[in-house]
């Protein structure tokens, strides 16, 4: 385990310890001073400060890089959200290598994707979203270094109450439990030259590849799902400089023939044979 990985694991353990002490103090009426409960939290931030000061910030990119051009991971008509073409970090954090990440949702026809609602319906089933079950393609010839698809696909968070629940409670709990809970079902491909492609929020049981397997550009590797820290069925895609999202930094990408779609930009990718270039 690298020093950076050990530091992130220690920070999560200390944060969990803080919550456990607070709950125990309230439930058991412990006699020690309240400020003792905050010691794990103080230690957690101390660990982060030390790592950032002497080991390089674990949540910031190492250096500016030329975008790596790869094939698009989807085909058909899609809309871009949280795009690095508009701002970086695109998801408002460098954590988990997300600096240049992008989200895309399918909309085969205008208006075919369910709209966000203020109150009702609070949540929707995934089958109502055209992205759910859409095939995902390898963006280059690569080796699968991580592949997991056992997490459940939860309901959408397509209303104000559901979004508040996600942002205030669910997302923070997932963050405490680690990158896997944030990403949900995911695949990481080693593209070579220190570049890794991550596909997150995949559909449960949809993987067609295994760790260690070689894949070809354009090959179907999984389906879009709604697992992990996700509001609706969509693909979260990013390039990074290592196979572990806890320690990797983001790398800018460009999709061949498309570039980097801007927020709310509609783009369409034609189907291509496996291994074919534009």
From TrEMBL:
Pfam families with a match to the protein in the record: Peptidase_M23
Record has Hydrolase as a keyword: yes
UniProt-listed CDD domains: M23_peptidase
Main enzyme class: hydrolase
E.C. number: 3.4.24.-
Transmembrane segments: 12-28, 34-55
Alphabetic keyword roster: Hydrolase, Membrane, Transmembrane, Transmembrane helix
GO molecular function, one term: hydrolase activity
Domain of life the protein comes from: Bacteria
SUPFAM superfamilies in the cross-refs: Duplicated hybrid motif
Domain named M23ase beta-sheet core: residues: 182-241
InterPro entries, alphabetized: Cell_wall_metabolism_enzyme (IPR050570), Dup_hybrid_motif (IPR011055), M23ase_b-sheet_dom (IPR016047)
Signal peptide range: none
PANTHER family to which the protein is assigned, alphabetical: MUREIN HYDROLASE ACTIVATOR ENVC, PEPTIDASE-RELATED
Name assigned to this protein: M23 family metallopeptidase
Lineage of the organism: Bacteria, Bacillati, Actinomycetota, Actinomycetes, Kitasatosporales
